[in-house]
Design goal:
2 helices; mainly alpha; rod-shaped; two-stranded antiparallel sheet
């Protein structure tokens, strides 16, 4: 789900899991967090690589 250009899928997944405590919702929330962490690692690696190229 995008709101004002920002991806809020992790927030939505966590909220749904917290409200329902359904195993499927909890599983989707965990996957969303793992994807977020992977995306953050990739973004950090790209920033470091760009900084190294600029030097």
């Amino acid at each position: 789900m995008k709101v004002l250009g920002e991806d809020h899928s992790v927030t939505v997944a966590l909220a749904r899991a917290a409200c329902t405590m359904d195993k499927a919702d909890l599983w989707h929330a965990r996957l969303a967090l793992e994807r977020l962490r992977r995306d953050q690692r990739e973004a950090i690696a790209a920033a470091v690589e760009n900084a190294a190229v600029e030097k």
